[in-house]
Amino acid sequence: MTAGLKAIVLVGGFGTRLRPITYHTPKHLIPIAGKPVLYHCFDALPKAVTEINLACGYMVEEHSRYIREHPYRIPVKVITEEKPLLTGGAMLNASEGVSGEFVLMNGDVICGLDGDEMLEYHRRKKAYGTMFLVEQQDVTTYGVAGMDAEDRIEEFVEKPAPEDAPSHWINAGMSVWNADVINAVPAGTPISFEREIMPKLLTKPVYGFKSKTWWEDVGTPERVLHAQRLIFDNLPQKQRETHVHLPGAKAAMPVCVGGGCSAEGSRIGPYVTLGNGVKIGKGSIIEDSIIMDGAEIGEDSIVVRSIVGDKTIIPNRSRIEGKCIAREPERY
Ligand code: GDD
Ligand code: MG
Fold this sequence. Notes:
Elements: E1 5-11, E2 31-32, E3 35-36, H1 37-43, E4 49-56, H2 60-69, E5 76-80, H3 86-93, E6 101-106, E7 109-111, H4 115-124, E8 129-135, E9 143-147, E10 153-158, E11 169-178, H5 193-197, E12 206-211, E13 215-217, H6 221-233, H7 237-241, E14 250-251, E15 255-257, E16 267-268, E17 272-274, E18 279-280, E19 285-287, E20 289-291, E21 296-297, E22 302-304, E23 307-308, E24 313-314, E25 319-321, E26 324-325
Bound molecules: guanosine-5'-diphosphate-alpha-D-mannose and magnesium ion.
């Protein structure tokens, strides 16, 4: 059973709430602590997964190039859609080679889940499906599960009004399924897994795997920066210390620095990711931010709680607070 388990990971949507960053970089490839969101997401998959089918709905070339140049520890096959098929259609479109059971994952969530524990739970329960759930106060932007005393899911409502939410347990974006679920999806048409397929599967034994682990969906700038805090706070101490090489700069940990950066006379951190080839001018202060590949921050500037896109130039004496900034878009 263990050999050949596949995961289908969904990357699509336009990342509109992360514009202008997403004009150039898909949200799944925003770097946090040395690797993109997508690879943090892969890290939560059960170890039994031997191959990932990446259901790729947009910026296919960017995803493919990254994966080619930075191979993940297991093979990742990019499967494209001609038009956005939504989560259910994308799952079907990327289901080649799936049999027995498989893992379905949203490519925009980061978490401390041990996927093996969830897979073990799924098998112990002899479940048809098992969904990773976390608790949230405001559930209105998520899918929400209502369960019985054994955690069998009886109801599932996507993005409910507060009065219609069956609980505070939300779909955290990873689930394990019997491969039969693929047959429930009509071919070639856009269809939402959460709105149209999931509710129909509940006649079968589908369980919630309730978890207290750290978790975030990187859909907005605030959530990306929160995800960065969570990731840094949960890195093993040793890994935190090996990520900084910034001669002449003051680094307040945690900080992660890519190759070929310069930041002499500046103060970096805490909670900062610098991509590759980033230049920070003398006297500048960077805190709680992500500065992507090839960006340049001038001298005597302050960047706080912000995301600066790749190759973006910030002039001297700028004050950037709570912003997403990118160079002019060449597309859209
Ligand atoms: N390939 C492909 N094609 N992927 C898509 C498409 C598409 O047409 N539409 C969305 N996706 C991908 C997104 O890139 C993301 O990785 C995942 O599917 C979920 O889509 P989002 O647009 O991010 O949905 P959401 O965050 O509003 O809601 C989903 O995630 C929540 C948890 O973060 C739902 O699954 C909710 O039920 C869940 O609570
Ligand atoms: Mg999302």
